[in-house]
Design goal:
There is one protein chain. The longest helix is centred in the C-terminal third of the chain and has 30 residues. The protein is mainly alpha-helical and 72 residues long. It is 58% helix and 0% strand.
Length: 72
Amino acid sequence: MAEFAYNNSVTVGNGISPFYANYRFHPRMLDPPGEGEEPVNLESTVYAHWMQAVHDASKKGLEAAQERMRRY
């Protein structure tokens, strides 16, 4: 996940991500299947839901840390 996040983050030097520089498109991240589209692997839906929950919890933790830093 760290490698994915790094390769998908925009760099200051050129304003594009390393992934985009190599492949000329941005990877899909936790996108639900389109309407009427079934996921290839049903377990991937469970994993995507879990990853979204982890992402949300991490975001809340970072926001709380930012608030603490702002106060001090």
